[in-house]
Every structure is written in structure tokens, then in C-alpha cells.
């Protein structure tokens, strides 16, 4: 295999690997989110920290709005759609609707360590 071919294969593998974030997952009652959509507690939605949401002058136009993430924690996996920005969340942490939190742990727990990545 030529050096160019090895480089291209290594590049393709690294480009397809998702970046994983680690942080705390908490839950909130959704309403009108930063992406400009209204959601309820039954919707599979997530608010990202400012570090992952970004600082678009118009948050409705943020590149992350509408994207889905996969969340791993407590030996379980679930998916949620980005609809909001969590102003108080540190980088890597997320705030999810109760229906998503329940997929990972009982809401009574309040806070769970998770990893997540964009789909």
C-alpha cells in the first residue's frame, strides 16, 4: 500500500469517528426553545451547553438546531433532538426532556454522568 493510500485510509477512518462529549445530564420542562420551536415534556429533546450550541447572533439559526444526538449512560442509549441552549450547563453537559432522562435513569435521580455525540 502506498503512503498516499495509507494516508487516505487513515483520514477516512478518523473523519468518520464521532467526537464524544462527556458531562452531566439533567432534565428540564421544555417550552419555547432557543431554536424557535415549542416542545413539551413528552418530546425527545435536548438543550446543549453554550460551548456546543454556539453563539449565532440569531439562536434560531444555530447550526445545531434540529440535529440529533445519541446519549449513553447507565448502560443505556437514547437519542434526542437539539432544540434549546442550556445557559447554565458546562461544556459537555446537557439538559433533556423528562422522557429522555427516563430512558437513562429515573428523573428522581436528577443528575447522571453521560457521554453523547452528534448523529
TrEMBL record:
PROSITE patterns reported in the protein's UniProt record: PROKAR_LIPOPROTEIN
Signal peptide coordinates: 1-20
Alphabetically ordered keywords of this record: Signal
Organism superkingdom: Eukaryota
CDD domains given in the database record: DPBB_RlpA_EXP_N-like
Protein name: RlpA-like protein double-psi beta-barrel domain-containing protein
Amino acid at each position: 500500500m502506498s503512503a498516499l493510500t495509507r494516508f487516505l485510509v487513515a483520514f477516512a477512518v478518523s473523519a468518520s469517528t464521532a467526537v464524544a462529549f462527556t458531562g452531566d445530564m439533567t432534565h428540564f420542562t421544555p417550552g419555547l426553545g432557543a431554536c424557535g420551536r415549542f416542545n413539551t415534556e413528552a418530546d425527545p429533546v435536548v438543550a446543549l451547553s453554550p460551548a456546543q450550541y454556539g453563539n449565532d447572533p440569531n439562536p434560531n439559526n444555530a447550526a445545531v438546531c434540529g440535529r440529533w444526538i445519541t446519549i449513553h449512560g447507565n448502560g443505556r442509549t437514547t437519542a434526542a433532538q437539539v432544540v434549546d441552549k442550556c445557559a447554565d450547563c458546562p461544556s459537555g453537559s446537557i439538559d433533556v426532556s423528562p422522557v429522555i432522562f427516563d430512558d437513562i435513569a429515573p428523573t428522581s435521580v436528577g443528575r447522571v454522568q453521560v457521554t453523547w455525540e452528534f448523529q
